[in-house]
Amino acid sequence: MKISYNWLKWYVPEAPSAEKLVDIFNYHLCEVESVEHRVFNKEEDWILDLKILPNRAHDLLSHQGIARELTSLLNIKFIDPTPKYKIPESKPTKLIQTIESSNCRRYMGRVIRNIKIGPSPEWVIKHLEAIGQRSINNIVDATNIVMFDCGQPAHVFNLSRVKNLKLKVRNANKGEKITLLGGVEKTLDETMMVIADDLGNSLDIAGIKGGNYAELDKDTKDIVLECANFDPTSVRKTAQALNIFTDARKRFENDLSPELAAFGMLELSALILEMCPEAIFEDVIDVYPKKQEGKKLFFSTDRISKILGIEVSDKEIEGILNRYVFEYVYKKGKFEITIPPMRLDLATEEDMAEEIGRILGYNKVKENIPKIDFKPKINETYAKIISARNKLLNEGYSEVMTYTFCDQGEIEVKNSASDKKFLRTNLSDGFKESIKLNHANIALLGLKEIKVFEIGTVFTKNREQINVCYGDKKNITEVSLDDFCKNMSSNFSLKPITYNLETKFKMWSLFPFIVRDIAVFVLENVKSREVEKIIKKNMGNMVIRGPEIFDEFKKENKISYAFRLVFQSYDRTLTDIEVKGVMDKITEKIKENKGWQVR
Amino acid sequence: MGTEHPLSILANQAYQAFSEMGFEIGTGPELETDWYNFYVLNFPKDHPALDMQDTFWIKEDAKHVLRTHTTTVTARELEKAGKEGRLPAAFISVGKVFRNEATDITHEMQFFQIDGGMVGENITLADLKGVLTNFYKKMLGPDVEIEFRPSFFPFTEPSIEVFAKFKGKWLEMMGAGMLHPNVLRNIGLDPSKVQGFAFGGGLDRIAMIKWDIPDVRLFYQGDLRLNQFQNKT
């Protein structure tokens, strides 16, 4: 959720600097994913992108939500905009609304006549653009401002398309089609919910996206406002099935309070009055079959302390409850609070522990190592893995890990982000690729032969098992871990091999390497390291491995030493010509020694 | 002597650190039921919280998923320990997990998670902090500090994010919190009698931070150039 610092300041005039806010949010509310500094018409702003946690998405996906949280957290003043949202006069209405689906929890509508579609005031454009939204026209902008300001999605219909002034919230018919704003057509079914007119035309997919049938145009004069509340699961399932992502969906699927709709309607009406002073407002029709129940929550100071591992006092808790404007009754270490309608996340004592913990700050939690005499058992699978791994390492095999996903198998995953959609039925196939890769790099690795193993899970229909695969270029053996360990001694060491973990990892070059060998005949009293010294001195800085002696033999009174050099650069592909230049130089320098000969 | 994969080396080191604190090693299936992956862990059905997981669902088998976390193992082992009357108990597991997302240098469809939990009568967030501080000091060095920040997971309440300060920078390391009472009930325990914590995070990430390995995908190429660590003997 993008929050504009300037927008936030409307409600929190004492807000600390944007920089300080980042820390406050990170440590007491949620992660700040980014901060962007913006200048709009010479006015500075900071845009904080907050990763609102799912359990607070019903009240914090809005500037007012964040403002209320922040002012309670810091115990500073919140400027409530409600008193300034006043509609001077409202006339009786003929609008009729019916709810036929239990997934609509509240439906508020209001007819407004004599509006004028046009550009938005500058502050509206500024607010919307600050959070990455585009200004469309004054009326559409007003609905967006309401959603990002208080969190209530709102919608506006063209009144001329609402036949007989009747709106109906009903389940769609199977196969019913709707063309959405923007022109995409969707086919609905009976699990989905629409807002329809009296003739059966669907105007809107409830809580998700409006249709183009009742879209406003530049000449629209009369409109119907909608502020409603829909069941989160229903909205989520419909939007998923139709593959539609909108800001309205995001809010409804996180379970908004139906109480919020009334504030949304108030704010939306006031904004439209500001934009269209000539507008004539009719009364709000509010269909609200089952009012949101008030809930109570009981918790004790002791239990909160026992969960957090901090000594929390009654006084600290009372301070928090007062700042957050929770009504409460206190009796002998126990609190009974009335949960505000917007705080649907609070239901249990543990929820209050989190609330109090994050507000106080988790830095209050001090480290403690529990002194409990646990009686752990040995895990047989792990014991077998360690035993198999140590055995293979000792036999000279090196360990690799390859991918679980492959091109064919018996079990297929749905909707993979990759084209490898099957789970491996064996390790051998991926293993062969590993052997091939390592063989190509054998000179780089400085190995004489490639011997590798993998211990990993394979999948066949109705069964998964851990296999052990080991081998070289010629032979690959794959058996189940159980079979591999059949003859495992009962008193084998469970101790893994210990490593020098101060070793620094060095990333290898991603460019090709070139291998060159050089064999030198010298008199038999000349040591190999004398030759090596000359090679080293003249080989330049492109040698990644070597010189390594790999062959040595005597012939008459002479001895031959063969060295291998591997050339590779970290920043480019080396050419044969430049490597030849180095080899020529080495050859030349070797020849300068009397009786030395390059073969 | 062959060379060992860095993630195996690190997993063993982690197991050792936790074993010294009394944790028992746990293992479990990679192809997991939706019950253990989600619903035992208090994920509501058809809830946005499921979107946090990028799950691989299995074709023609609505009941199974590739596990998205090894909290499945923690839940299974704690359930078993409860049935066997072996509480208080603590479990640690390192296992492969799967996320259906595009890969890049920090994201891979398969990676290893280190996951654990402790349940007893008076286990608190302070114990969690003690255990994890001890662990990260062993993994990343004695100068490491850790801190908790607010977070959300369906299976913990309170939920926190664990950050570690390594070479002067705060890094996000794992998610954790106190096991949600619904989870305790789902695994047959009585939340009015026992409570505990759970934590889980990427092992690959610790390896990358510790050794400055630049790309998570290097771990699964079968490339022996990765095995740069020499044993002590």
How would you describe what is shown here?
The complex is a heterodimer of chains A (599) and B (233). The longest helix of chain A is centred in the middle third of the chain and has 16 residues, at 260-275. Chain A has 18 helices and 28 strands. Chain A has 599 residues and is α+β, with helices and mostly antiparallel strands. In chain A, the strands form 8 sheets. A 5-stranded mixed sheet of chain A has the order 4-15-6-14-7. Chain B has one domain (6-220): BirA Bifunctional Protein, domain 2, CATH 3.30.930.10. In chain B, strand 8 (156-166) and strand 9 form a beta hairpin. Chain B is globular. The chains are: A alpha+beta (599), B alpha+beta (233). The interface between A and B is large, with 103 and 96 residues.
Number of H/I helices of chain A: 18
Described by its quaternary structure, the protein is heterodimer
Based on CA atoms alone, the radius of gyration of chain B comes out at: 17 Å
Would you tell me the structural class of the helices and strands of chain B?
Answer: alpha+beta
Q: What is the third-level CATH name, the topology of chain B?
A: BirA Bifunctional Protein, domain 2
CATH fold field value of the largest domain in chain A: Phenylalanyl-tRNA Synthetase, Chain B, domain 3
In short:
Chain A is built from 18 helices and 28 strands. By secondary structure, chain A is an alpha+beta fold. Chain A folds into five domains: 79 residues, Phenylalanyl-tRNA Synthetase, Chain B, domain 1 (2-Layer Sandwich), CATH 3.30.56.10; 192 residues, Phenylalanyl-tRNA Synthetase, Chain B, domain 3; 70 residues, Phenylalanyl-tRNA Synthetase, Chain B, domain 1 (2-Layer Sandwich); 105 residues, 2-Layer Sandwich (BirA Bifunctional Protein, domain 2), CATH 3.30.930; 85 residues, Ferrodoxin-fold anticodon-binding domain (Alpha-Beta Plaits).
